[in-house]
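User: what does the whole thing look like in 3D?
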Amino acid sequence: MLINAPRGTKDILPDQMSNWLAIENKMREVCARYGYDEIRTPIFEHTELFQRGIGEGPDVVDKEMNTFVDRGNRSITLRPENTASVIRAYLQNKLYSASTLVKLFYMGSMFRYDRPQAGRLREFHQFGVEALGEANPAVDAEVILLALELLREFGLEGLTLKLNTVGCPKCRPVYRQKLTHYFSDKLDELCGDCRRRYEKNPLRILDCKVDGGKEFVEDAPKIEDCLCDECRDHFKKVQALLKAAGVEYELDARLVRGLDYYTKTAFEIRCDDLGAQAAIAGGGRYDGLVEELGGISTPGIGFALGIERLLLALEKQGKLPTVERVIDGFVVSMGADSYAFELMLMLRRAGLTVLMDFAQRSMKAQMKQAAKSGARFALIVGENEVNERTVTLKNLSTSEQQSVAFNEVVEAMRR
RNA sequence: GCGGUUGUGGUGAAGCGGUUAACACUCCGGAUUGUGGCUCCGGCACGCAUGGGUUCGAUCCCCAUCAAUCGCCCCA
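Assistant: Here's the predicted 3D structure for the full assembly of 415 residues, as structure tokens:
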């Protein structure tokens, strides 16, 4: 019996690497332009980091974490997201000492134990960005712009930016209170999920697919009526900056980011082509999180983007990027393997990409391989070439062929 | 975690309760001497996700498991 990869995990095979690399390269390139530096944190952390960082409540922590006890009897969790880890690293390594605004990005595996679907895996990959130390709404705008520009550079279409503010510790409780009060005598009219949400997070009721359209839900108190001056002003400034940048967005009072740590700005980028997993990227401000994790009060904002979802969307739109791979030569050996080896070594040392078929097959078969590999040249060696210490160099696109002295092959191939 | 659909070779797929499981592509080999991309010829599932059951007999029927997928939940 073969052993398969665990449910919800996927091999990224050689023929897909080109797409992954192209995407990762673009991410690094855009981040460099925006002044974000890469960071890599461990794939597992103390379970407590996520419990404190994300908060008890969201499914991500309650039901979806891969938690285990290690041999030293510690409770360890495979990271379900990276923000808490980045902040942990920021505090632990005192990155704040370098400058007030620390801008970081990451990419890597995240783990959530959920039922797999296309665009939703148990091990999946996120690219994300965190800007720590600055409360200025301009940073909110920069982060959103970075996400949008990145996707735009991939040529992705059918994107919608949804924007909301979820208030802060001053005004959110007021709003939540109002909502709870509002729904308290309407529980019977809500679906089962919403009755659950009523306890855990009444804001959720607003974007319920079952109840969302109901009149009394539509008429529920709006957060904008409860925002404190600071949050109201912040949100206004973020919008002004986005408008100035020519960004189109939808205000969505029902957009509730799933992780409890968000404050003020919350946003999500959706792509039409992804079915139920339409959220390709999401994020927001989390001004209380650093303090929650034991640092001094430090504002922060970030977002995460699902790389598999991006790949899926790009594939659907026929826009998968690739990285070029040039094969310079393919050595065809007619029973002259040691000479062929010498040749390959020489060429590779000169920095050329050279392949050969080791199956000792007919010349015809080897030529076929050479053509299939996409190599620019076939380098044919046999008894004659060995004796003359030459190489028969055939340009596979023009079919031109010449005999070249061993020492002059590199030069001939570079012409 | 809940509900639905699906599961045939490397790939896309046809198929029927009963002798050799179509077809296409890929791949491999060949069309005489050391030359590819075109053409032609030939080869490639002892097996129809796995494990049970029904049946004289199952890839086609039933059950379970596993997996994928769609929707929900949640989220990226």
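In plain terms: Chain A has 15 helices and 16 strands. Residues 14-171+227-316 of chain A form a domain with the BirA Bifunctional Protein; domain 2 fold (CATH 3.30.930.10).
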